[in-house]
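hey so i finally got around to running the thing on that chain from the lab meeting. sorry it took forever, my laptop kept dying and i had to restart like 3 times. anyway pasting the input first so we r on the same page abt which one it is
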Amino acid sequence: MAAKKLYESFSKSLIDEVQRWGAMKQTGVSLRYMMKFGSRPTPRNLLISAQFLHKELPIRIARRAIELESLPYGLSLKPAVLLVRDWYLDSFRDLRSFPEIKDANDELEFTKMIKMIKVRHNNVVPTMALGVQQLKKGLDPKIDYEDLDEIHQFLDRFYMSRIGIRMLIGQHVALHDPNPPPNCVGYIHTKMSPLEVAQTACEDARAICLREYGSAPDVNFYRDPNFTFPYVPNHLHLMVFELVKNSLRAVQERHMDSYKVAPPVRIVVADGIEDVTIKVSDEGGGIPRSGLPKIFTYLYSTAKNPLDEHSDLGTANVATMAGYGYGLPISRLYARYFGGDLQIISMEGYGTDAYLHLSRLGDSQEPLP
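ok and heres what got predicted. didnt touch it at all, straight out
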């Protein structure tokens, strides 16, 4: 998709319509509801799902487009943020110009269109990160970034909403698979093994560590190998990958010059009544107490963004989620999306424990920022 000019102008009537839809009430759904509804993807159910998305997606997208227009410190005027705003307005226009969905043919055409919208928004996270970098360049270095709470809160709302939009679109599209994998309802695996997903995520994280450092600490697992529960494997993979990648890097860098074998990263999976909790423990030296409040923010990272000022923002293919310091805050949003949470407890001079809580009840409604 060729990048359009950054300052695309939109008609007043479209902007007025965005304002009107942005004022409407959003409707949240739970993991349990998605699982129950999607377990019978009949043509009638797919039609009902498409009709729901035809009304719900423009509301959610309009709310984000409105916020993108009114960010503090001039963030709304940064070229990267203007581009993201254009993507949201384009998607709103596509959804609103699609006629009423009355039959299976309409539903299939609508499904094709929302698949395109999902692809259009693939690079939203690194592009917004680039916008924040553009903002930071122009800020007074004497400003304490803790004063930029408004931007942190906006990005939390913005990325949480994006997780919801992509989950709803992805779930609807996946329900069209004529041969779904066993025990899968769209994106949801009804008998997901947290151990299997964690092992795959660890292999991926160790591969990156091996590539960057030439070696990687071992990862040891403590768990019941037969335990399963309903969840979204992609979400869990993303969260565990990020936590393990951070732990491997910390251990590797702390023990790089030692002749001893680096201590392993330990993963414990606990099956509670309310939560499934995954603990990732390392002996990577920990985080100073003064630094802990900063690990869930978007403005402190010194990591390199895979997009830079010279990237073709419309065509850059960026697969990474966390290569620019957004991994922890976005992982916490993924956990919270289905009623869980992520906590980090650190012992400076020793190591860090990350507790990933996943709600196993599946009945909490989506957070609707």
